[in-house]
Amino acid sequence: MRRLACLLATLTVTLPVAGGLPAQSADPLPSWNEGTTRQQIISFVEAVTDPDSPDFVPEDERIAVFDNDGTLWAEQPIYFQLAFAIDRVKTVAEEKPELKEQEPYRSILKGDLKPLMAGGEHAILEVVMATHADMTTDEFAAIVADWLKTARHPTTGRPYTEMVYQPMLELLAYMRANGFKTFIVSGGGVEFMRVFSEQVYGIPPEQVIGSTIVTKFEMRPTGPVLIRLPKIDFIDDKDGKPVGINRNIGRRPIAAFGNSDGDLQMLEWTTAGTGRRLGAIVHHTDARREWAYDRNSHIGRLDKALDEGRKDGWTIIDMKDDWKVIFPPVRP
Amino acid sequence: MRRLACLLATLTVTLPVAGGLPAQSADPLPSWNEGTTRQQIISFVEAVTDPDSPDFVPEDERIAVFDNDGTLWAEQPIYFQLAFAIDRVKTVAEEKPELKEQEPYRSILKGDLKPLMAGGEHAILEVVMATHADMTTDEFAAIVADWLKTARHPTTGRPYTEMVYQPMLELLAYMRANGFKTFIVSGGGVEFMRVFSEQVYGIPPEQVIGSTIVTKFEMRPTGPVLIRLPKIDFIDDKDGKPVGINRNIGRRPIAAFGNSDGDLQMLEWTTAGTGRRLGAIVHHTDARREWAYDRNSHIGRLDKALDEGRKDGWTIIDMKDDWKVIFPPVRP
After folding, report:
1. Model's pTM, two decimal places?
2. pLDDT per residue as tens digits for the range B32-57
3. Domains and CATH numbers, chain B
């Protein structure tokens, strides 16, 4: 374990990250175009941080929650954690050769994802379990760190940790500079995200909430370990998001950022609190620089939340119009 | 809900708290006697915070976890949360009169706890469910806050929030002043502890880990609520403590404080990490000023953890010898 922990430490330090957090400057949101969206965000932050404002919120109550896939980083053409699972199938099939003859593994190994996608949520869950469980938490973290170092996004060729939204990195830093505690609240696996959240987003592991699988304490001759079992513990999506927030944070956020119907209940829960609140939706409108999708997308479907957001006055972030750049600059 | 939230805010502000955190002074641990125990703690903190020490730990990795019952506040003659449940039986029996004829409720209402205690864990769990569930999270928090304001400890007559250990309040403040993030990791209910943790211990809700019951998001005509269901979600005790730590914190603590065999796995998990670690046990040795109990106690049984702690060089805090005072001074 000592060796693995050291390995992990090494890997983590060398994760590919572009740009990083923006340098201190007069404008805290340099990648955001002037306009209503930017103004709504700044006006909210100023109102809750000004001690003379009727909307003032004490610092320890300034909780802001962010969805991850499609809100902080991209989620096309498939969720990045699913890309990890698919890459892992090769390794797992070497350990369990019988999988090579079973669907959807057989097709995945030939590069064909159709049987996997046709199997829907059930098939995806099965592949996730086969690739994410039956190992210790330390082993899993090392595997994820290793994958992030080498894997590349299929259309941009960039490391996944560079497929993050530069304007959102600036927003996270801006809110923290104003006394906010920033949390990720994602349907993604919590132990997958924690490997890169601190380095990429400046969000420490204890502020990452996500889906979990059942984990078991075991005393081995070499010392105690936590084993990841192939069994779902908690799905942090839709109705689950307010539940996860309540379980891990224990107070209601005053700001929430999402991009899909999976974030609807989190946005409702946040904005229904007393006092001034900010609900915001990242709307994928930029087919040229990113992807354009909403009501008819299988990934990140945004339908009900868009209607409710427009009706209730949530801030709708239009990626095409509101953002000067999408991704951090490519490193030389 | 708005009314309840306001009510809760009012109640929380007026919780009885004695002493508070110690004033800034040359000695950060004024209630600790000079000696080995005090020295072991200070030497650990100095080693991990000194950038020139081989044991140096970066600030964001300085995670310290504390059990609550018997470690931060007393747990005799019964766990304080059980005292809350018993007091709640009166109210619940008014709402559900059929309980008045059923054991253990019938006896509890007459002040007799024997049938409850004879029923063991199962009976206690049933009473906890009957008194802690079927309401919203906001309603539950308001009930707990109200109880803490009025309830008094049966032998000292003090509010429960004054039955906290003054030396541990100093220790929490000392560790935080040295860049530690302090967490509670307790078998107690997380939503019970969060009502007072920030005001009494300076530990915010998001740093409290405890047992949970299943909670459900529900959209009501008045807005969204979280309903507490009478079903166990997670028991944060024994094997569960490292699991809870992994789920909510996502990295291994470097210091752990407990007082019973329920803390054994948390202490093992913490001290098995690489680098310098501190495992510590609060040993209840003071029959005059507090209570003296260990191996043969039903509450806070300390047997295996005491043996393992002595063998592995954990710091054993002897309440009688190491602490100048136990509780904060009584307010005039």
Report:
1. 0.92
2. 999 999 999 999 999 999 999 999 99
3. 21-76+158-322 (3.40.50.1000), 80-150 (no CATH)
